[in-house]
C-alpha cells in the first residue's frame, strides 16, 4: 500500500515526511508535515454552561468538552460527592454527564474533571430543575366542509420562569404565519 505507520508517537517523530514512488518510467514525490500535539486539558475555549436547565422527570446531558491531547479521563462530582455510573447517572466516553428522571434532589453544582498525562483541569455549572411543559388541551380531529373555516386549539402548562412558544405544522412542515397570513391565523390567548 505504500503506508507508513508510526506507533507510540513522541515529539521526535514530528517533521516533514516524504513519500517517493518510482518505477521504470520515472519517479514522483509527495510531502506531508506531521505535527505532534500535546496539551493539558483546558476549558478556556469551551467552558461548561454556568446554568443548566432540566425538566422535572426528564433527561439532561451536561457536556464536558475541554481541549486536551491525548484524550483525557473524565470524572464528575455534585458538590463534594464523586459521581459514578448508576441507574440514573451515566458518564459517557466523551465526558458528557447524563441524568434521567430528573428530580429536585438533582439540583446543584456539577463539576467535570479532566486529566491526561500533561495535566488536569475542571469546570463547573449549576443544574436547576424546571417544571415540565405539558400539553393540557391537544388539537382534536375536525371534519369541516370545504370553503368553511376551521379552528384548532392547543393549550399547554409550563414553568412560569420560562417563555413558551407554540409551533404549528402541517404534514411535518412548519407553518409560516407571516407568509401565509391570508390562509392561517394565530390567536394567542393569555
UniProtKB/TrEMBL annotation:
<feature type="domain" description="Ig-like">
    <location>
        <begin position="41"/>
        <end position="128"/>
    </location>
</feature>
<keyword id="KW-0677">Repeat</keyword>
<dbReference type="InterPro" id="IPR036179">
    <property type="entry name" value="Ig-like_dom_sf"/>
</dbReference>
<dbReference type="GO" id="GO:0005886">
    <property type="term" value="C:plasma membrane"/>
</dbReference>
<dbReference type="InterPro" id="IPR003599">
    <property type="entry name" value="Ig_sub"/>
</dbReference>
<dbReference type="GO" id="GO:0030424">
    <property type="term" value="C:axon"/>
</dbReference>
<dbReference type="InterPro" id="IPR007110">
    <property type="entry name" value="Ig-like_dom"/>
</dbReference>
<dbReference type="GO" id="GO:0098632">
    <property type="term" value="F:cell-cell adhesion mediator activity"/>
</dbReference>
<dbReference type="GO" id="GO:0007156">
    <property type="term" value="P:homophilic cell adhesion via plasma membrane adhesion molecules"/>
</dbReference>
<protein>
    <submittedName>
        <fullName>CNTN1 protein</fullName>
    </submittedName>
</protein>
<dbReference type="InterPro" id="IPR003598">
    <property type="entry name" value="Ig_sub2"/>
</dbReference>
<dbReference type="InterPro" id="IPR013098">
    <property type="entry name" value="Ig_I-set"/>
</dbReference>
<keyword id="KW-0325">Glycoprotein</keyword>
<dbReference type="Pfam" id="PF07679">
    <property type="entry name" value="I-set"/>
</dbReference>
<dbReference type="InterPro" id="IPR013783">
    <property type="entry name" value="Ig-like_fold"/>
</dbReference>
<keyword id="KW-0393">Immunoglobulin domain</keyword>
<keyword id="KW-1015">Disulfide bond</keyword>
<keyword id="KW-0472">Membrane</keyword>
<dbReference type="GO" id="GO:0070593">
    <property type="term" value="P:dendrite self-avoidance"/>
</dbReference>
<dbReference type="GO" id="GO:0007411">
    <property type="term" value="P:axon guidance"/>
</dbReference>
